[in-house]
Amino acid sequence: MKNISILGSTGSIGVSTLKVVDAFSGEFRVIGLSAHSNIDLLIKQCIKYKPKIVTIVDETHYQTLKNALPHEIEVCAGTGGLNEVAAHPDNDLTIAAIVGSAGLYPTIEAIECGIDIGLANKEILVMAGSIITKLAKKNNVSLLPVDSEHNALFQCLNGEDKKSVRRLMLTASGGPFLNLPAEDFNKITVAQALEHPKWSMGKKISIDSATMMNKGLEVIEAHWLFSVPVDDISVIVHPESIIHSMVEFVDGSYLAQMNVPDMVFPIQHVLFHPERRQSPLFREIDFCSVGSLNFQKPDINKFPCLELAYEAVRIGHTMPAVLNAANEETVMLFLNDAIKFVDIPCIISGVMDQHKILLNPNIEELKQADVWARQAVNEHYTKMV
Ligand code: NDP
Ligand code: MG
């Protein structure tokens, strides 16, 4: 039996992870769960999975959670409680499925305790990829990619010599606005941007997919996970989302990984790694009804966020953390209907231009860059209104 904890158990990835746990009765023991404020779902999950420890970050819900649960479950609150869940001594694997930079410290805590990570929370690698990957190596910790593209690459690279890899090719669905003419981007609403054609996900990543910042963050994520130079990582739009990514090898061969677009497949792969198990969740790809697989170049004019991410990682140091924090803030402003969809890349680019880079930052300095970028976004916003 494998012992797992889930940071962000009430989110889209958290719920899909528990779906895999349900499908394999007796294979997994849930040690810890956490949420930010979705107390109702967290209580339901605790009653069903009887974890040893649970954390609610929003402390106003602490008493309600405590009162609802049996005494055997240790109840924590606040950000400190996330560290307790992440690094519980019984954990074999911690699934990092918090959205945004809030997942950074608990994930570091788990790595420092030598616990393997199932990584969905890509923002923390964007922010601090150099530090996290070094720390994982030092503590002999595996960073197992949950993100479908990275899980695909991980499978394609299995057993391959790194020297034989010519290029990583990340596929992108193109999001809801792939075929929307550039002149109509001005009128995009929040509801339209949340309507992803292929995946059902949390709000932040849905907006990132609509701007294609998600693919930019994934380029940075792939750079750190597989130690491949960023200029050897390319993005190709593949609207059917059947191929989840590809590896181009020096001998002219390509390997691609495919499954029905549902996160339970990469999650199951991570949960059982290094085994491949027969799945009760198995779904066949009906290739004949898919008919054809299409590919096209991403349109940088319509999706400038993709290029901003390349720019940030080429500059390096504090810039990717600034890109990430500026993106988190502008996405939040857009979700609150405070700015337009087209303002997102403009504000991020303005903040990146203003940033004074700090070389070789440590975690505290990256956190300061993150805080600075959020303030800078809000200054841009104040000038706009
Ligand atoms: P959701 O918004 O659905 O869930 C986020 C989870 O994190 C929830 O449990 C939420 O709690 C919790 N949370 C939110 N803010 C905080 C905070 N400040 N501190 C602690 N916990 C917090 O996101 P997703 O599941 O969609 O995405 C999670 C991560 O996985 C992201 O990094 C995303 O990019 C990545 N990912 C997601 C995919 C998907 O299909 N959804 C695919 C590939 C990667 P509460 O419910 O209480 O708000
Ligand atoms: Mg992805």
Automatic annotation (TrEMBL):
Asked if the keyword Electron transport belongs to this entry, the reply reads no
Keyword Magnesium belongs to the record: yes
Describe the reaction catalysed, as an equation: 2-C-methyl-D-erythritol 4-phosphate + NADP(+) = 1-deoxy-D-xylulose 5-phosphate + NADPH + H(+)
Q: Where are the transmembrane segments?
A: none
Residue ranges of every copy of the 1-deoxy-D-xylulose 5-phosphate reductoisomerase N-terminal domain listed in the record: 4-129
| Keyword line | Isomerase, Isoprene biosynthesis, Magnesium, Manganese, Metal-binding, NADP, Oxidoreductase
Name a biological process GO annotation: isopentenyl diphosphate biosynthetic process, methylerythritol 4-phosphate pathway involved in terpenoid biosynthetic process
Binding annotation for Mn(2+): D147, E149, E218
Enzyme Commission (EC) number: 1.1.1.267
Q: Where is the 1-deoxy-D-xylulose 5-phosphate reductoisomerase C-terminal domain?
A: 143-226
Using the record's annotation, list all stretches that form the DXP reductoisomerase C-terminal domain.
258-375
A Gene Ontology molecular function term for this protein is: 1-deoxy-D-xylulose-5-phosphate reductoisomerase activity
Which cofactor(s) are needed, names only? Mg(2+); Mn(2+)
Report the family membership: Belongs to the DXR family.
**Record's PANTHER family?**
1-DEOXY-D-XYLULOSE 5-PHOSPHATE REDUCTOISOMERASE (PTHR30525), 1-DEOXY-D-XYLULOSE 5-PHOSPHATE REDUCTOISOMERASE, CHLOROPLASTIC (PTHR30525:SF0)
Function recorded in the entry: Catalyzes the NADPH-dependent rearrangement and reduction of 1-deoxy-D-xylulose-5-phosphate (DXP) to 2-C-methyl-D-erythritol 4-phosphate (MEP).
Q: Which HAMAP family match?
A: DXP_reductoisom
State what protein this is by name.
1-deoxy-D-xylulose 5-phosphate reductoisomerase
Gene transcribed to yield this protein: dxr
